[in-house]
């Protein structure tokens, strides 16, 4: 029997497995996807680097920037400079693969099978894959925005609480600065995030209902600014974008289960930052399992960063109003907003 089964080996699942394995508990990750490039900017904020300094030391290529350019809906460009820390841009192909390797090196087992369903069996779990059924004592759902673990236990994130992104992985912009262009047409923004070998160029909106013309807006931006860019691949992806803290009234953990990362809905509704929360959740879930009380995860995440996350939800509903977006794109006000979100 598996003691701890983790469905999903993205940042949340892999880091949780690593932390469990460090404690001598040897979990099993189910994930058939590696190696793969998850659609993502791969931007790691100064706050994430402060809380998880090991990221700066990973032996994988990344970009480093100490400034961020923000273009307002009307086209005004402002620069925000980070004086104390830099931001890093990772390819998710390399970052996630390395985190999985760290977990395996410490004793985690990776089963490269997709979980097709889970069922409670007395106090245990039947974890079914395309190939066979495994019995697990504790289940951790780290299987992303469309988590089947979440769906089965507390119900899926509904469409209102999911944003939609569209974009390209491109080559030729690796020397560019990190740029965010707030959309004049919808609650969302275009991003240019250079990494060492390629650049993530995409657009996101806070709700699927705002997505009409999403691709066209990005293509016009590329045509106007980077007509020569070489497109390597294109993608569309959903991302949690929670509009009301009410959804967290349902606990994210019980006596033998925990939901973490995107499966928990833990992505900043303002910035779209999720790598930080995936790491925090991985750490806290490992602590709860090590203490043999998975249910305390729901208290741990709220104590650790719940207040700032709930503030992000309130601000997220407000920041994307067009007049306020424009107002906040003026000098210091923009800087203070970004410092508030990213530090
Ligand atoms: C377009 C886009 C851009 C983003 N940019 C940024 C950014 O620049 N910075 C930032 O901090 N955050 C960003 N985010 C958010 C960030 O990508 C996520 O919050 C983060 O990846 C969450 O990690 P996770 O491990 O919870 O989920 P994921 O990274 O989605 O990993 C889930 C894993 O579960 C696996 N899985 C799913 N279903 C199953 C199953 N049934 N069986 C087995 N395995 C399964 C998948 O293969 C995957 O490997 C972005 C998101 C998007 C969509």
What does the model show?
The protein has 343 residues and is α/β, with parallel strands linked by helices. The chain has one domain (2-342): FAD/NAD(P)-binding domain, CATH 3.50.50. The protein is 33% helix and 29% strand. It is built from 10 helices and 18 strands. The chain has helices at 11-22, 46-51, 54-57, 92-105, 148-153, 214-225, 275-290, 297-319, 322-328, 331-342, and strands at residues 2-7, 28-30, 43-44, 62-65, 67-71, 77-81, 87-90, 109-111, 115-121, 124-129, 133-141, 162-171, 178-182, 188-194, 199-205, 230-240, 253-254, 257-259. The strands form 3 sheets. Strands 1, 2, 8, 9, 10, 11, 17 and 18 form an 8-stranded mixed sheet that branches. Helix 1 (11-22) packs parallel to helix 4 and helix 1 (11-22) runs parallel beside helix 7 (275-290). It is globular and about 60 Å long. The chain starts with a strand and ends with a helix. 46% of the residues are buried. The model has no long low-confidence stretch (mean pLDDT 92). The site of flavin-adenine dinucleotide has 37 residues, from helix 1, strand 16 and helix 7. Flavin-adenine dinucleotide binds at residues 7-13, 30-31, 33, 38-43, 114-115, 142-144, 148, 165, 193, 202, 237, 239, 261-263, 267, 272-276, 278.
